């Protein structure tokens, strides 16, 4: 599903209005939004950005969609190690509102360089990568919105805690502020919603480290993923989501997250920023789903802990609320971006 939303090019649409420094109205028209802003050979908005790491230089893949001088949203995908592709549903919503957004495959993900040195897979290094991407794309305090989903939400929180002076707004989508609390929620709430025999089988296979056993994923796909990851029949999962998740870099995913979404057992296992949320001062939207893998009550609490927060609950949504409660999710994101001046 790659919808580039040019169907409405036959008519002149008026997009959202934003304020410039003189407090005058700046109207984004379709001709402005789709205007090519670079010279030479065109690449469809794709830019390979060189980044510095402790072990050398690499390149990461980005793709800009649209133009808006005041509303630029950098999307941080989950995984860790997934791809930008499951965000393609944004193309059906943000362009008609005149909101510019940027796809970005983090280092190690499919469209970016894929080094294998495991020392690279740390939160701290990923934060510095995001900052280098921001600088290369020319994103500033006056226009830079950061949206992080799942693992991307962890990365977005960490980025804000270090570099929030560069942000205009922050969106944390379907992610708690503590992996410790998430593990507790998975054990005490989510596991109890599954048949005891299924939980016992998962625990037995995990204890053996037998994650490659087809039975392991079969149990998750039957009793967990369709209820808490995406509440749609598996055979109806959207193509962008299937592509993005199927290309996950397993080295990164297992090292940082662990082998499944049913709890965290990798380097992120002890990650906890609950006590630091109070230091986030930029306008912040927290999004959660009623049926999420993440505790919606915890995410609602997060919105009260940050200095300028709001909470969006997707009542029919799970971890991929941008698909299974799409209208609620997208309208909430759009409303938040438009309200931040």
UniProtKB/TrEMBL annotation:
**Single Gene Ontology BP term?**
proteolysis
Record keywords: Hydrolase
Q: Where is the AB hydrolase-1 domain?
A: 73-325
Gene Ontology cellular-component annotations = membrane
Gene3D superfamilies recorded for this chain?
A: alpha/beta hydrolase (3.40.50.1820)
Catalytic residues of the enzyme: 150, 292, 319
Q: Which GO terms describe its molecular function?
A: peptidase activity
Q: What PROSITE patterns would the database entry show?
A: PROKAR_LIPOPROTEIN
Question: Which is an annotated Pfam family here?
Answer: Abhydrolase_1
The record's InterPro entries line, in alphabetical order, gives: AB_hydrolase_1, AB_hydrolase_fold, AB_hydrolase_sf, Peptidase_S33, Pro_imino_pep
Q: Which family does it belong to?
A: Belongs to the peptidase S33 family.
**What is this protein's name?**
Proline iminopeptidase
The organism of origin for this protein: Thermoflexibacter ruber
């Amino acid at each position: 599903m790659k919808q580039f939303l040019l169907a409405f090019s036959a008519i002149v649409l008026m997009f959202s209005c934003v304020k410039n420094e003189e407090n005058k109205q700046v109207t984004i028209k379709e001709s402005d939004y789709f205007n090519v802003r670079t010279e030479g050979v065109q690449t469809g908005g794709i830019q390979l950005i060189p980044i510095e790491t402790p072990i050398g230089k690499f390149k990461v893949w980005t793709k800009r969609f649209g133009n808006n001088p005041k509303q630029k949203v950098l999307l941080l995908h989950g995984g860790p190690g997934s791809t930008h592709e499951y965000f393609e549903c944004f193309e059906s919503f943000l362009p008609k509102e005149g909101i510019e957004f940027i796809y970005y495959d983090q280092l190690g993900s499919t469209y970016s360089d894929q080094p294998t040195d495991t020392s690279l897979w740390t939160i701290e290094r990923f934060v510095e990568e995001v900052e280098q991407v921001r600088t290369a794309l020319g994103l500033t305090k006056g226009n830079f919105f950061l949206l992080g989903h799942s693992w991307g939400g962890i990365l977005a929180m960490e980025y804000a805690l270090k570099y929030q002076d560069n942000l205009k707004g922050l969106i944390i989508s379907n992610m708690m502020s503590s992996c410790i609390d998430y593990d507790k929620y998975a054990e005490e709430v989510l596991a109890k919603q599954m048949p005891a025999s299924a939980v016992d089988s998962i625990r037995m296979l995990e204890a053996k480290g037998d994650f490659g056993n087809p039975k392991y994923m079969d149990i998750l796909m039957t009793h967990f993923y369709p209820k808490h990851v995406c509440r749609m029949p598996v055979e109806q999962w959207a193509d962008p989501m299937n592509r993005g998740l199927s290309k996950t870099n397993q080295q990164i995913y297992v090292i940082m997250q662990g082998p499944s979404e049913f709890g965290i057992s990798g380097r992120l296992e002890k990650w906890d920023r609950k006590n630091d949320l109070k230091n986030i001062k930029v306008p912040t939207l927290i999004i959660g789903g009623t049926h999420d893998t993440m505790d919606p009550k915890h995410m609602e609490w997060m919105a009260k802990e940050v200095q300028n927060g709001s909470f969006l609950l997707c009542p029919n949504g799970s971890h991929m609320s941008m698909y299974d409660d799409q209208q609620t999710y997208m309208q909430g994101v759009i409303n938040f971006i438009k309200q931040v001046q």
